[in-house]
Design brief:
By secondary structure, the chain is mainly α. It has one domain. Helix content is 63%, strand content 0%. The radius of gyration is 19 Å and the shape is elongated.
């Protein structure tokens, strides 16, 4: 199947995922369910922890060259972590907990979609297989925490429809617009912060790191993972 793997970039980006995590959590909280606050808080905490670990792994590599050369592993794939943090939960929430089979089907669909986002990072050469696997393991933990915490929560059809329309409109506007999909320059920010923290003039470069080196000349930033 000949897909344009760039279609999977935005649904795994922080610019898309984090606002949706916030929105879905707020919609659950509006139910006035005493258990909703704890459930949403646990999910949000897991998402924040996963995102911070992914960011920390990138800073550790860019600043100090922390990684495993034998596995070509420098960091967690952020897209994979964020995708698994959101989509299994997002597709499960519209299904009432009593309809266990349908909820499991929806959860599985969310996992498959998130894994396709992870696969797109390999196909687009943004990450090697090892970093996507690492991201899937970390994101899977976040997803498990969120799904367990929210197992008794669900969104009413009107709220689900509103979220579906918002997400669909956002993705369609992106896919039908500029092919250079809008992205936060988070990778550049992390690389710059890492170089500053470690006292380097430039962040560690993947190509030189593979060969046993660490620092490159200014401007050679094409090999930054995302």
């Amino acid at each position: 199947m000949d897909w344009d793997w760039r279609w999977f970039v935005v649904p795994g980006s922080a610019l898309c995922v984090l606002p949706l995590v916030l929105l879905l959590g707020l919609l659950v909280l509006r139910k006035n369910d005493p258990g909703a606050r704890v459930a949403v808080g646990r999910w949000w905490a897991a998402v924040v922890a996963g995102a911070m670990l992914a960011g920390a792994s990138k800073i550790a590599f860019y600043g100090w060259g922390v990684g495993v050369r034998a596995w070509d592993l420098t960091c967690f794939s952020g897209h994979t972590v964020l995708a698994l943090s959101l989509w299994p939960v997002a597709l499960a929430l519209p299904v009432p907990p009593a309809r266990r089979f349908l909820r499991n089907v929806a959860t599985t669909a969310g996992i498959v979609f998130a894994l396709l986002i992870g696969l797109s990072r390999i196909e687009l050469r943004a990450h090697p297989v090892s970093e996507v696997i690492a991201g899937a393991l970390l994101g899977g933990i976040v997803a498990a925490v969120g799904l367990h915490a929210l197992r008794r929560q669900w969104l009413s059809p009107p709220r689900t429809a509103a979220v579906a329309v918002l997400v669909s409109a956002t993705l369609l506007a992106t896919w039908l617009g500029d092919a250079r999909y809008p992205m936060l320059p988070s990778e550049r920010w992390l690389a710059t912060a890492a170089a500053h923290l470690s006292g380097r003039d430039e962040p560690v470069d993947r190509g030189h790191w593979r060969k046993g080196g660490t620092v490159i000349s200014p401007g050679a930033d094409a090999a930054l993972p995302r």
